[in-house]
Write a structure and sequence with these properties.
Elements (H helix, E strand, L loop, with lengths): L3 H15 L3 H8 L3 H9 L6 H11 L3 H5 L11 H23 L1
Helix pairs in contact: 1-3, 2-3
Length: 101
């Protein structure tokens, strides 16, 4: 499971990669800049409908954002994060196969 800090980093990186400031995103989302800042520090998290709206705005799927089917992080922790997610997915696939038998 992802930590609040990891989710916050993904949200911040997606915003930066889109070329938006926190204030521009806040205006687009009908939120305050402070709320955007809280999401990007892990102080709070957007609800699922807001998260889906963010992905639509960034033209990213959940897979692209959280499962790294394409790079979304510009931080140095990206390789570690990708390795951890890949390992978790592999374990989940193995468990699914085991349950099918």
């Amino acid at each position: 499971m992802m930590t609040k800090a990891e989710i916050a980093a993904i949200l911040k990186n997606l915003r930066k990669m889109s070329g938006l400031t926190q204030q521009q995103l806040a205006d687009l989302m009908g939120r305050s800049q402070q709320v955007i800042g809280h999401w990007e520090t892990g102080y709070s998290q957007p609800d699922i409908s807001t998260l889906l709206a963010l992905f639509e705005l960034y033209d990213k799927s959940i897979d692209e954002a959280f499962l790294n089917t394409e790079p979304v992080s510009i931080d140095k922790d990206y390789q570690r994060f990708k390795k951890d997610v890949t390992k978790q997915l592999r374990l989940m696939r193995l468990e699914i196969e085991r349950l099918k038998q």
